[in-house]
Amino acid sequence: MGIQIRNVQKRFGAVTVVNGVSVDIADGEFFVMLGESGCGKTTTLRMVAGLELPTSGSIHINGKDVTFAEPRHRDIAMAFQDYGLYPNMTVFENIAFPLKIRKVPQADRRRKVEETAGRLGIADYLSRKPFQLSGGQRQRVSLARALVRNPKVFLMDEPLSNLDAKLRAVMRTEIKKLVSDLGITTIYVTHDQIEAMSMADRIAVMRRGDMVQVGSPLEIYDRPLTRFVADFMGSPPMNLFPASLKTPGRPTCQIQEFVDSIPDDEQALIAGRLDSTGQFSAGIRPEHLKLVQPGSAGSARAVVDFVEPLGQTTNVYLTAGETRFIAVTDRCNRQVGDVVGVYAPPEFVRVIAN
Amino acid sequence: MTDSISTAKVGGDKAQRAGERRAGLLLLTPAFVLMNVVGFFPMVYSLYISLTDYNPSHGGIARFVGLGNYAKAFFDLQYWHALGLTFVFVTLSVTSSLILAVLLSLLFNMRYPGFFLLRTIILIPMLITPIAVGIVWRVMMMPDLGVLNYILTVIGLQPQLWTSSSSTALLSIVLVDIWQWTPFMFLIVFAGISSLPKSPFEAAAIDGAGAIRVFFSITLPLLRPVIVIATLLRIVDAFRTYDAAFIMTRGGPDFATDLVSVYLQRVNFRVFDLGYGSALSWITLVILTVIILIFTKLSGFTRIISEKEGR
Question: Which of A229, A240, B66, B306 has the most CB atoms lying inside 10 A of its own CB?
Answer without folding.
Answer: A229
